[in-house]
Amino acid sequence: MRGSLPSGAAGATLKRAHPVAKRIWIAYFSLMTLRSILIHPDPRLKKVCEPVSAVTPEIGALAEDMLQTMYDAPGIGLAAPQVGVLQRLFVMDCVKDDDVAARPMVLINPEITWTSEETNTYEEGCLSIPDQYAEVTRPKTVRMAWLGLDGKSHEDEFDALWATCAQHELDHLNGTLFIDHLGRMKRQMITRRMEKLKRERARA
Ligand code: ZN
What we know:
By secondary structure, the protein is α+β, with helices and mostly antiparallel strands. Helix content is 29%, strand content 25%.
């Protein structure tokens, strides 16, 4: 997920593109590889991804590449299908404050175990749908269970921007984009813009 522009409640996400903590993290992973991010429309972004069968070193390397790719973009979440890997994992870090340490998270085979009735509306964006933002309403708080890179089960509660980001990324694993939560007209308008962007990039 890409945070919104500095207007809505989530506006702070993009204000500082490369906070110090994030730079340290990127330096730490300087040997990792930036992966290219698929741009909508792409059939791989519409697939239901397969569960990860084992937390192998290859999955660890993929997760580290995805974190570096996400920080570099910059974004606050990135799902495996966005880099063309149709497996159920995503990474996220919604820490916005320069003075707070980065909190990179890797969620493998994530599942929602509880959602609040209270909802929240954020202006969402997506690294696969560059420079397009729209308000999406989702449960304000969710509990998720997942496998960590340690191979162990984890469960935790996410609130506010973290909850929105986790749900946005989980959607990706089921072939759903944030624009699928919008009306048909708006979705088609954004899709046409992305088709134009892809044509322009192909010519460049
Ligand atoms: Zn996204």
